[in-house]
């Protein structure tokens, strides 16, 4: 039984990870690379940003630090990271399915995918819009904590609404979805950036589109394969 | 037999005992979170730089 769920998760992650890699390669990463050319071109703001809490965080573009070479190596690491991230997300929704006894099937796969997109992309992006390198940001750990809070509250609201059908549950779920936004995401310092506004806007829509496709594929393939493996093992036992 | 197969498919998860479900669920959660934190959140510069474009593309908080 667990093997069915595990294999379905891993194969769904493989599909979703490869598809997001293709979308990123074609539409998202070029925007990141374009933004990197503006990084450091506004030295006053950059220094200010670091003084604002980023000083302790090692900067990724320090020449002394390892980073993949642009080109095949960088693309390769991105694909690897996408696959591992996809496996992580697939195992997390598989775990939620097991812990709360909410089956992932062909019939519910789309809901799982849309729920994952809302919890792990849309809700965090409402407070922390997907940003390009070189844009002013608040303290990284504070943003990571808020991101986790937004994902947990939104996902928790969906599980609650799916498990318990009562009017008060709907109200509680809505309150839970709203909570992280009432708390408020850490705001970036008032600093200018050399990254063009059009580039940043394109990036937000491209990354949300990318995440939506990733999650819908993950949910649908996960559900379809879980059905398939379950039917197969049921056939083998009878 | 057909009816049986359909019933098994529909109740694939429900037929497990609660403790089995919770243990498997907790293990999957731990493994999944480890992968997610490793790719999306870890501060180590090698992990950060290797997964840099993934983090930006998926809207994880990055530098």
Automatic annotation (TrEMBL), chain A:
<feature type="transmembrane region" description="Helical">
    <location>
        <begin position="168"/>
        <end position="185"/>
    </location>
</feature>
<keyword id="KW-1133">Transmembrane helix</keyword>
<feature type="transmembrane region" description="Helical">
    <location>
        <begin position="197"/>
        <end position="222"/>
    </location>
</feature>
<feature type="transmembrane region" description="Helical">
    <location>
        <begin position="109"/>
        <end position="132"/>
    </location>
</feature>
<keyword id="KW-0472">Membrane</keyword>
<feature type="transmembrane region" description="Helical">
    <location>
        <begin position="144"/>
        <end position="161"/>
    </location>
</feature>
<dbReference type="Pfam" id="PF09490">
    <property type="entry name" value="CbtA"/>
</dbReference>
<protein>
    <submittedName>
        <fullName>CbtA family protein</fullName>
    </submittedName>
</protein>
<keyword id="KW-0812">Transmembrane</keyword>
<feature type="transmembrane region" description="Helical">
    <location>
        <begin position="79"/>
        <end position="102"/>
    </location>
</feature>
<feature type="region of interest" description="Disordered">
    <location>
        <begin position="43"/>
        <end position="63"/>
    </location>
</feature>
<dbReference type="InterPro" id="IPR012666">
    <property type="entry name" value="CbtA_put"/>
</dbReference>
UniProtKB/TrEMBL annotation, chain B:
<keyword id="KW-0812">Transmembrane</keyword>
<protein>
    <submittedName>
        <fullName>CbtB-domain containing protein</fullName>
    </submittedName>
</protein>
<dbReference type="InterPro" id="IPR012667">
    <property type="entry name" value="CbtB_put"/>
</dbReference>
<keyword id="KW-1133">Transmembrane helix</keyword>
<keyword id="KW-0472">Membrane</keyword>
<dbReference type="Pfam" id="PF09489">
    <property type="entry name" value="CbtB"/>
</dbReference>
<feature type="transmembrane region" description="Helical">
    <location>
        <begin position="22"/>
        <end position="42"/>
    </location>
</feature>
């Amino acid at each position: 039984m667990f093997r069915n769920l595990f294999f379905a998760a891993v194969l769904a992650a493989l599909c979703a990870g490869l598809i997001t890699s293709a979308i990123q390669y074609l539409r998202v990463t070029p925007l990141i690379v374009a933004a990197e050319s503006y990084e450091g071109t506004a030295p006053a703001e950059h220094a200010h940003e670091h003084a604002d809490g980023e000083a302790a965080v090692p900067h990724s573009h320090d020449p002394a630090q390892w980073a993949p070479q642009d080109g095949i190596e960088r693309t390769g690491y991105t694909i690897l990271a996408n696959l591992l991230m996809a496996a992580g997300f697939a195992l997390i929704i598989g775990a939620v399915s097991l812990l709360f006894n909410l089956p992932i099937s062909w019939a519910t796969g789309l809901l799982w995918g849309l729920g994952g997109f809302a919890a792990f992309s849309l809700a965090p992006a409402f407070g922390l819009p997907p940003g390009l390198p070189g844009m002013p940001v608040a303290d990284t750990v504070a943003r990571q904590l808020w991101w986790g809070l937004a994902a947990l509250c939104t996902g928790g609201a969906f599980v609650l609404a799916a498990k318990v059908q009562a009017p008060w549950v709907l109200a509680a779920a809505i309150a839970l979805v709203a909570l992280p936004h009432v708390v408020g995401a850490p705001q970036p310092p008032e600093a200018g950036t050399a990254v063009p506004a059009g580039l940043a806007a394109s990036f937000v829509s491209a990354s949300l589109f990318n995440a939506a496709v990733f999650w819908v594929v993950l949910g649908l393939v996960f559900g379809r394969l879980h059905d398939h493996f379950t039917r197969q093992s049921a056939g083998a036992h009878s | 037999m057909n009816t049986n197969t359909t019933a098994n498919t529909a109740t694939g998860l429900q037929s497990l005992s609660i403790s089995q479900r919770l243990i498997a669920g907790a293990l999957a959660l731990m493994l999944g979170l480890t992968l997610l934190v490793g790719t999306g959140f870890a501060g180590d510069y090698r992990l950060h730089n290797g997964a840099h474009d993934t983090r930006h593309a998926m809207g994880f908080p990055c530098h």
